[in-house]
Structure formats: structure tokens, C-alpha cells
Amino acid sequence: MNMDLNYDLIGKRIRQYRELKGLSQEELGAIISISNRHLSKVETGIKNPSLTLIIDIANALDVTANDLLVDYLTNSTPSQKEEIVTFLNGCTPTEKAILMDMLKHMKKLLSEYGI
Q1: pTM of the entire structure?
Q2: Closest Cα to residue 42, out of 64, 14, 62, 63?
């Protein structure tokens, strides 16, 4: 099966995970040693990322390459990370902040109860 990759979609996933991690283009670019201009072109699909760059980005964002390429994998199901990203992308910045605060408090409570 031959398929063309939609680099716009890959770029959107990169941007989603970067924003979820709270990084600017400049910050992620510094981590992976590319300019924010280059990263911007990757995120908008203007520049096609190499496999090495995809791996560097995935490592910097604490995601897998599968998370970035999930739309092209025939034997993959959406991960919990993908569900969370999709959910949070539908939220306003205020809603995101409130939900993140609630999750942090819930995580602390779970730890306190040994769960």
C-alpha cells in the first residue's frame, strides 16, 4: 500500500503536543537544535520533517513517533494521550487551566491514599 503523507496533519499533531507540554516554538526549537522558523514551517506543513527530526521532536515532547504519525498506522488505536490532546484542544484556555489544576490535585490525592 502506497500513501502520501499529509505533512500538514503531522505538523498539527506536533503543535498540539508542543502546546500541551506548554512549550513555545522557540523553546522546542532550542531543545532540538533547530530554529523556531524551521519548526514553524514543519508545524504548518511547509517543510517536511526528516525521520530524525520526527524522533527528536517526539523525544523532546515525551511522546512516541506513533503519537505523531498515528493517522498513517494501520495497526494502531488512538492512545490515551491522543484522547487527552483531542479533549483539551476543544477547551478554552481558562477551561484548560482549571482542568489541569484539578488533575494535579486529584493526582496528589491519589498519591496520599496510596493509589
Answers
A1: 0.64
A2: 14
